[in-house]
Amino acid sequence: MNSLFAEKEITFNGKKQICGTLTIPVEIAEKNKLPAVLFISGSGPLDRNANGPKGKFQLNVYKELAEYMTALGFITLRFDKRGTGKSDGDFISTGFWDFVDDAEKAFLYLKNCPEVDPDKIIVLGHSEGTIIGTALSERQPINGLMLLSGGVGNLDEFTAHQRKLAYQELRKSKGLKGILMRLLINEEKQEAKSRRLMQKMFDSNKDVYKILFFIKQPVKWMKEHFAYDTRVALKKVTCPVLAILGDKDPLVDRDLLKELPALVKGDCETHIIKNMEHGFRVQTEEMTILKMKKLLKVLPSRPLNQEGLDALSKWLYEYYLAETNTQQSLVDTGK
């Protein structure tokens, strides 16, 4: 355990019991009520640290980001998604609005923590969490919204963007593979096929749909996501907003961020960070969507992108620490 902060295992209940970690900067917390950051994780069966089940994809990015922010002087809360880690529930049948419900319960838990300043609770959404965090802003008076590796678009837009990049990358393949891909791939037909399959699943009225009798698809989750209009929600946001994307992130359409300042009513800041991938780590290799799994074997051992951390800490300091005594943070913020 790091002597600069204390970690506390916590639970909160909604329809399911959710487990998480509350991290508190020890020295500062003894004197002040502190601002807090609520982490909302990305898609897939990720636990509170951004790690997958059965030892797969041990990313630890939320743990590292939480410890970094706690060292700046923030209480942080990150939690296992429903049906992952120690949290109850069945992940594959959990819907988008179920995840929003859990995020709201986490927000209310933070608001009632005696160490937390209830008027300074910031929601940090990563990837899918940017959509969930945006939906949460319609339900609760959040005091800051951080959109990491996402923002503005909904799931339908992002998955369409990912398919488009995959088509482009396949057509650019070298040698015989490239020749075959350019002959065989018809993007228009592939998109039509994808839409037909999606509509077939949505028409089934099932929470979970099996393709080829055994490949389970989270239909409730997809249907609710696709129907959600993030832009309508963002137009109601009055708190400060920070959006950070990496230039090596193939999962997010960075052009969508151009819409953000005109959508939100509060102060808005956006950054495209050089040599940063979807998980906030350093990536110097070219952007690729087809070789992401291969990259995930080496990315977790790399540091978080310092330029991204600098943008994050500068924003947090200016809006949530500068007017309080808590700027005596436990790490150098560059101020």
UniProtKB/TrEMBL annotation:
User: What domain of life does the native source organism fall in?
Assistant: Bacteria
Q: SUPFAM superfamilies from the entry?
A: alpha/beta-Hydrolases (SSF53474)
Q: Which residues cross the membrane?
A: none
Q: Which Pfam families match?
A: Hydrolase_4
| Serine aminopeptidase S33 domain: residues covered | 60-279
The record ties this protein, via InterPro entries, to: AB_hydrolase_Est10, AB_hydrolase_fold, Hydrolase_4
Query: What is the protein name for this chain?
Result: Pimeloyl-ACP methyl ester carboxylesterase
Q: Which organism is it from?
A: Fictibacillus barbaricus
